[in-house]
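Table S2 (continued). Query chain:
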Amino acid sequence: MEPISVFDAHCDTISRCWREYEGLDRNTGMISLEKTADFGRYCQFFALWTSDGYTGYPKGGDGVERAYHALLRCFKDQIARNQDKIVQCRTAAEAERAHSQGKAAAFLTVEGGELLGCDPARLDGAAAEGVAAVNLTWNHANALCGSNCEEQPRGLSPVGREFVRKMEDLHILVDVSHLSEAGFWDVAELARRPFIASHSNAKSVWDHTRNLTDEQINAIIKNQGVIGLNFYEGFVGGGRDLDAVRAHLDHILELGGGQNAALGGDWDGCDTIPDLPAIDSLPRFYEHLLRHGYRETVVQDLFYNNLMRVVR
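Corresponding output:
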């Protein structure tokens, strides 16, 4: 089989590199440049994420802000150390330029608006640093919105609405994974540009608060956004194998999401299904889909093209 192209919408590898003092080039985690070296083209959304106890900074006060800047330095440092193999990008054109030079493309994202102080004014700085997407919340509710775990009935606050509008003005993708359902519908109402659910599955296939209802999937399709398939065992459900992941994909395709399904592995942020222990196992999922009768163009869209479309 020819080398596959991969564009994945979510990993926590930078947080892991920070915690474990490991490098992006070679490490004991799920993503490294060594593990992705055989891909034809490779793009990755690298999330900056922290929660109390994970990076050594206290929750509250200026602890989260200090953690954000430490994680940002870690990301920038890893890209600089490996500049012969990977380059930070924010657009499809920049990614394509990186590929033409034989390099991977790293897209910087922020998981949880609290890392930016839930402050719309901080988005200018984030854009200047090359942030391509922001999850409004992680599992904790914040000043922007409720989450899938906390304050689920709460939608976007006034500052949350301002935050979303400014993100779109700055061409930063709004990421609704982890968001409360009420917040999701507020984003859908406000959105003037495609938004994404970077690492979420189909609730009709496996009933979990982190997964999306059919109505939410349809809204993302209508918006021309993207849904990244999450490989975390708890969100995949069923047999927790390739067939179980395929069931989520099939459901999205049945709803008309052939141009909207992508990869969002949640690498280095969870226990993935045993069949996909690290990113270098993705070719077996590619082959699995072909063996089950998927057209190769559909698989290529899933693995690369659909996510590339929304960063243009």
